[in-house]
Amino acid sequence: MEITFAVLLWGVRIAFLVVLYLFVIRSFGALQRALGSEMAVAARPLGIAFLVVQRSVRGAPRVGDRLPLRAVNAIGRDAGNDLVINDEAASARHALVEFADGEWWVEDAGSTNGTLVNGETVRSRERLQYGDELGIGRVALRLEQ
Amino acid sequence: MNKSQGAALPASPPRWGLGGIAARSRFTELSLLVWVGLLAVFGFIAVVGAETSSFGSASIVVPAIFIVLVLSLHVFLIARRFRGDQVLMPIAAGFTAIGLVLVQRLASDLLLQQLSWTIIAGGAFAATILIPRDLTALARFKWTWAFLGVLLLVAPLFPIIGREINGARIWVKVGPGSIEPWEAVKLLLVIFFAAYLEEYREVLSRSQRRIGPFPIPPIPYLVPIVAMWGIAMLVMIFEKDIGATALFFGIFLAMLFLATGEGFYAVLGLALLLVGGFVAYQLFGHVQVRVDTWLRPFDEDLRFGSGYQLVQGLYALANGGLFGAGLGNGMPDRIPVVWSDFVFDAFAEETGFAGALALLTLYLLFLYRGMVIALRAPTTFLQLLAAGLSFIIALQTLVIVGGNARLIPLTGITLPFVAYGGSSLVTNWMLVALLLRVSEVSNRMREGP
Amino acid sequence: MTAPIAANIRSLTLALAIAFLVTSVGVSYWTILASDQLANDPFNPRLIAASNDRPRGAILDRNGAPLATTEKGASGFVRSYKDQSLAQVVGYASLQFGLSGVEAAYAESLIGQDPADPISIWRARYLGERQAAGSVVLGIDEKIQKAAVEALGGRRGAIVAVDPRSGAMLASVSVPSFDPNEVVDLQRQQAAMDKLNNAPEHPLLNRAAQGQYPPGSTFKVVTASAALESGFDPTKKLRVDDPYQADRSWGDYFVRSASHAHGLFDMSDGFRLSENIYFAQVGLQIGGGKLAEYAKRFGIGTAPKLDLPAAKGQLSGSGLLDRPTLVADTSYGQGELLVSPLQMALIYATIANGGVMPTPHYATGVRDAEGHVVRQVAPGAQGQVISANTAKTLTTMLVGAVAGPGAFAFGAKVPGVDVAGKTGTAETRPGEAPHGWFVGFAPAEAPTVVVAVIVENAAEGGVTAAPLGAQVMRAALGK
User: Fold this and answer.
1) Which chain B residues in 294-313 lie under 8 Å from chain C, judged by CB atoms?
2) Residue C326: which of C239, C397, C255 has the closest Cα?
3) Are C298 and C240 in contact (CB under 8 A)?
4) C227: left (phi over 0), alpha (psi -120 to 50) or beta
5) CA C46, CA C59: separation in Å to the nearest integer?
6) pTM, entire model
7) What is the ipTM of this complex?
8) What is the per-residue pLDDT across C245-265, written as a single tens digit (0 to 9) for each?
C-alpha cells in the first residue's frame, strides 16, 4: 500500500469521526435551540384569554386586573409561577391553567386548600369555560376572552 | 371522567404546496442532513477504500442513493407543511447511514437487501406521517390493536408461514424474505398501553387501600392490561426469544410507571423479573446457556462454544482502544453474525471508544428529544405514547449494548436503525414518524394556526 | 390526586440517562482499561491474523534447524511442525483454538511485530504493512533433545536440560506428547482437539515446566543448604536408627530409612546413601521456619520466570511448616511438597552456578527476515540464593552421591566426567508406584549442563531415572 493512499485513507477515517462528532454537537445545539424557541412560544401570551381578578387580598393582584394567559400557566404563591398570587391561603404551587385541544383546562397542582371552579373543588383536570370563576386561596379570577 | 378528546383541532391552511411560499421550510433539518450525507460518504469511501485499496467511484453510489432518499423525505415534509420536530429525522437518518456503512463493511452481500429495506422504511415513514389523519383515532381502536398484536405475535407459530431461524421461532415468510412481526407488535403494544392507561390512569393510581407504603391496585382494572402483557410474554417464551420478552416486560413496567407514578410498580416489576429470570434459568436450557456465557465467557468449556461470539466481541472492543483501529482496518468479521447481533462491537473496534461514545450520545439525544416531545404533548394519551415510543428505542439500545459489553446477558435484540434487519428498520422509522406527529400536534396547539 | 405525568417522564428519563452513563463506563472498560490484556490473549485471532495473508515466522532451534514453519498449501498458508517431542514447547497456532507455547509467548514477533522493533508495529497498524516475519530462535540443542527423547522413551514423565550459566533450555521433553500438525489441520483439528482435551494423561500439559510432583530425595539439597548456612557442621555425625521418631507425640508416625540403617552418618553419607532419617533430624534441628525460608529462596511456591507458563509448586498445603512431623517429612522431600522438573533443575543449576540462580528461557533471540538479530532473549541471573562456599560444599557431596561407595545414584556415572547429582524416589498415593527422579549437573568443576529427569510411577524409582540423566549429559558433553 503506497504511502499517499494510506495517508488519504486515514484522512477519510479521521474525517468520519470528526463529522460524527460535529453531527452530535450540531444535533444537540439544534435541540437546545428548539427547546428555547418552544419555551419562548409557550411563554408568549396567546392573546386570546385573560384571567380577570374579581376578589383579592392585600398584596395579591388588584381587583380588575387583566392577567394575560399563555399556553401553560402555573399559578401559586411561589415567585417562579407564571401568575403569582400572594395570598397565604394559596400554596406555593397551587394550580395549572392550560390551553389544549382548543379548550382551557385547570388542574390542581397539589394545593393544601384546593382549587375551586365556580365554588366547586376541582378534582383533577377539568374544563374551564369562559365566564367560569377560578378560586385560588381567597383570590377569585374569571376567565374572559 | 376525564378524557381529553376535546374539540376539533384548529383549522389549518392548505396542507400541500410546492415552491417557497406555500411550503414551510425546515432549515434545521436540512442543515443536519448535510452532516448525515457527509457521514455516509466518508464512511463508504473509507470502508470500500480499505477493502479494494483504491478510491473507486463505486463507493459513492450507495451513499448517493441514500442521500437522495433522505432528501426526498425532507422535501416531502416541507411540501406537507409539516410543523413537527426537525432533529429526530436527521438523527434516525444518521443511524441508518452508519448502519449502511457497517453492512457494507461486514456483510456486503446483504447491502442491496438493506438498501431496499431502507427505501421501504422511508416509504413507511412517509405513510405514517399521512395516516391516520388524527392521532387520537389511534386511541379509539385500542382493542383492535391489541388483537392485531396478539395475532402477529402468534403468526410465527403457525406451520406454513412460520419459520425458525437460529433456534428462535419468530419469523414469518413474506415472499422472498422473512420479517419479524414482533417488531410491529412493540408499536401496537405501546399504542394499546397508552390508550388504556390514559383511560384508567386515575383508577389505577388512586390508592384507596394501602398496606403500609404499598398500594393495593384495583385488580379488575389491572386485569386486561396484565392479561395482554401476559399473552405477549407466553408467546415469546414459546418462540424462545428472551430479548423480546425482556423488552415487552420493560415496556409494560415503564408505561405503568409513567401513568401512575407509583415507584412501587417498578420495584415490584423488577423483583418479578429477577424471580422470573431465576426460574427461567432453572427451567430453560437456552436461558441457562446465555447466563453462564455472560458470567464466565472465558472459561475453557465455553470460550469455543457458546461463549465464542461474546469473546470475539470483547476482543474487538479491546482492539478499538480510544480512537479505533480505523474503518476497514479491524477484524470484526471474526465475530459470528456480527452484522446483526454485534454491530456495536464492530463499530467500536473500528472507531474506538470515541466513536462508540458518539453513537451512544446520539441515542441519548434521541431519547431526550422524544421525552421532551412527550412532556409537551397536550393530551395524556399522546404523552404516554411519545414517552413509550422513546422508551422503546432507549431500552433496546441499552439492552443490546449492555449485552455486547458483557454488562448483562446477550439477548436477541438488535441495535435500532444500525443493525442489519429489515423489519426493525421499517418499524423504527414508523416510530420516528409517530414521534414527529405528536410533536406536530403540540406545535400546532402552542403556536396557534 | 393524580401526579402529573410530566414528573414521571422526568424520573424515567433520568433513570435511563444514568443507565446510559453506566453502559458507557462499561464500554470504556473493554476498549480502554482491559484493552491490553485482551489484545495479548493467546486466543485473540488478531495475533494469528497474519497467517491468512502472509507467512508466519519460523521457530528454529539453536543451530537454525526448523521446528515450526509456514508452507504455502492449496488453500493458503499451512503451519508445519517438525519435532513432535517439542509439541508442548513450540505449541500450535490455530485460528480456531488460539495459540500455545512459544507460538503464544512470541506471537507478536512471529507476525513481524516484535516489541523491540516499534517501527514494524507502527507500519502494521497505520499502513497495513506487515513485515515479512523473521524467526524466533530457541536454545534447544537437537543433539541433547534427541538423547532425552530416546532416554525417556515411552515412559510417562519429563526431562529438562538447562545451561546453568545462561538459563537457556537445552532440551525439554514431556511424555505423552501429541502431533501438533493435527491441531492445525482444518479437516482433523476438531477431532484431534477433542481427543487431546479428553485424554486422561493430559498430553497438552508441558510436564517439564508445569508438571507438579513430590520431589523425593532430590529435595535434600535444600535442607542441606539451609543447614549449612545456619552454621550446621556437615562433618558432625548423627545417630541414625530405623525407624525414627523424635518423641512420643508423633504417635504412629515414623521416618523410615531406605536402607534400614543403624549407625552414624555425616552429611556426605546422608547424600551418598540418601538417608531420610539423617535429613529429618537436620530439618528438626534447624527448624521449620529456616527450612521454609530456604525453600522459598530456591523458588518453591513461586512460578519461575520462564517465557512459557510454569507451575509454582508448593512447600506445603498452608505454605508453612508448622508441625514437627511435617518438618521431618519435608526435610527428606515428601510432606506436602510439590515441584516441577524445571524448578528442580533451577535449584541444582543454582548450586552448579556458584549459588546464583539463572533465569530460565526457551527462546534465545528473535531475528528478522534477513537473519539480523532484532532482540536477544537473555534475562540474566536472578540473584545469589546461597553462598559460593555452600554451593561448593554441596557440589562435592553431590559428586559423592554419584561416585561414592554404595551411592544410590551410581547409574548416573559418565566415564571420564565428574557428575554431581541426586536420585529421588518420591512416594505418591498409597498403592501407586513412586516417581523416579534424577537431578544433576556435569562436569562438576565447571558445569555446562543441568539435567532433571522424572519418570512417573517408575517401579524402581530413582534407579530408573539416573541412567536416563547420564544419557542426556553424555550427549550434552559430546561423549
Assistant:
1) 303-304, 311-312
2) C255
3) no
4) alpha
5) 19
6) 0.72
7) 0.88
8) 888 888 888 888 888 888 899
